[in-house]
From TrEMBL:
Protein name: ATP-grasp domain-containing protein
Lineage: unclassified sequences, metagenomes, organismal metagenomes
Species per Swiss-Prot/TrEMBL record: viral metagenome
Length: 335
């Protein structure tokens, strides 16, 4: 009997009514198994777990790994670990000590992990991967990277950092801590002052953040869609557009500018090919493209904004794709 473990416990992005009805039998079974009280608790990670379970042949057992409620021995007993609930969620639920425990177990388990520990570490450090891609001539946004421990040890560092920001960027800035998923800890400063900045840095220390990314605030980032592209086993699957701070629904692939999407698929394949030379490419990866680079080009240039190796995503069933069913069929082939 082969065993696949799926890390779950994100508690975000609940299931749609339509998707629940489509796979009601397996979702009801999983609700009973995990003792979920309502369909709102069938979040995107639980949905993936359920569809993997549904697609698994009789000789493959699919096991839920809830939050950090497992041991290294539990992991070693598995043939494959598919990671959805990862370090950003661990930090939210268990703090920095929980993150250390999680990383140690994932690094030292005898089982195959996707994404593996090396790639998870790479993606967790935006400074690392943005520097990496810049050297590979992939367009990225100009960014200041700052270790918050410097300020923690010496509060006068805030003034030095503020001067550095004001010398490098004109106008509003956008700050985001590493390990700050779902915009948690992020803040936009229209008119930054030393007092407001120190208050912000103090709040980041309180929540255990250690590194901060500071970028110029690009108003066009709100005007144009951020294009999120999903890839499985190195192959393009689908895309959708989101707008930061917008209350509108995500734009489906068919509603996006098709010429732009074609260009981003080519750029995305370039990113995939670059990564494949240095890493074991993860089963799933999301590549996000933002608009726009601050240059004088008439045609606005999208830049690589983020990559995620255990991304928050949907089944994308509105157009009949049912991506989680496709995902389930593919991952059970890996054991």
């Amino acid at each position: 009997m082969k065993k696949i473990g799926v890390t779950v416990g994100t508690e975000i992005e609940p299931i749609s009514k339509g998707y629940y009805k489509k796979h009601k039998k397996i979702f009801d079974e999983v609700m009973e198994e995990l003792e979920l009280e309502s369909t709102d608790e069938i979040t995107y990670d639980i949905q993936q777990y359920a569809l993997i379970k549904k697609c698994a042949p009789k000789n493959v057992e699919v096991i839920p790994l809830w939050k950090l409620e497992y041991t290294k021995k539990d992991l070693d007993d598995l043939d494959l670990i598919y990671v959805i609930y990862e370090s950003t969620f661990v930090l939210r639920d268990y703090g920095i000590e929980g993150v250390k425990k999680y990383k140690t177990m994932m690094k030292n388990t005898k089982s195959i992990v996707t994404p593996d520990s090396k790639f998870q570490e790479f993606v967790l450090s935006k400074k690392t991967y943005m520097t990496y891609f810049k050297k590979k001539n992939i367009p990225i946004m100009d960014t200041i990277f700052y270790n918050i421990n410097k300020y923690k040890k010496n509060k006068s560092e805030a003034n030095k950092l503020l001067n550095r920001i004001q010398n490098k960027f004109e106008g509003p800035i956008y700050c985001k801590p590493e390990l700050g998923a779902f915009a948690q800890g992020s803040k936009m400063f229209k008119n930054i002052t030393l007092t407001s900045f120190k208050k912000y840095l103090d709040s980041l220390i309180k929540y255990g953040y250690q590194d901060l990314l500071i970028q110029p605030y690009v108003s066009e980032f709100l005007k144009f869609y951020e294009i999120k592209t999903i890839w499985m086993d190195g192959k393009y699957q689908y895309a959708y557009g989101t707008k930061v701070l917008a209350n509108s629904e995500d734009a489906q692939e068919k509603d996006l500018d098709q010429k732009l999407l074609k260009d981003l698929k080519i750029k995305g394949k370039e990113v995939i090919d670059i990564l494949s030379k240095d890493f074991n490419l993860p089963f799933i990866i999301r590549i996000d493209w933002g608009c726009c680079l601050m240059n004088d080009n008439v045609c606005r240039d999208y830049f690589l904004n983020e990559i995620e190796c255990a991304p928050t995503m949907g089944a994308n069933d509105k157009l009949g794709l049912d991506f989680f069913a496709r995902l389930g069929k593919e991952i059970v082939k890996k054991v």
